[in-house]
Amino acid sequence: WLELMVDRVLTWRTSPKAKVPLQVECRPLAGTINQTIEGFLRMIPPGSVSLTSQIDSKANVNFDEHAVETVMINLLTNAYKYTGREKEIGVSVRDEDDKVVIEVADNGVGISPRNQKHVFQPFYRVGEEHRDGASGTGLGLAIVRNLVHRHGGSVEVESKEGEGATFRILLPMAVEKL
User: Among 40, 47, 99, 147, fewest CB within 10 Å belongs to which?
Assistant: First the structure.
């Protein structure tokens, strides 16, 4: 966890200024997403979460593998931190129109509409009453937004208090060259 927090701070320090160039490749996201899920599961105590994944995307995307791993680890660790004892996380990736949609959903405490407007701001943390002892820097979702925007995508959250949250990433499919 400490390594993850240090990586977040260093990523935040460099990414807003785009000092670190993206190493973009054109290929499907499935391998990177599956690899990141496996890495996440090695970071947490065995059996501490029920994680399901449905990776149905076949479309090519222009993306930096490390950046997508960073986005996914941030979303997965938040989902893990903000759920109770019966942790359930779902990851899905699908092709939709000209976008690849990545969703990370949890059964946690949820996010109020008031807080949803601010969760992507640097250093913003949801009120203590909703954190259930979860620690963090308030940088994870700001990093997610920044990296997704650098890929030409968007990020959104859908949540109801007490019913969990779903974070949705929309990345443009690679345009086929004729």
Answer: 47
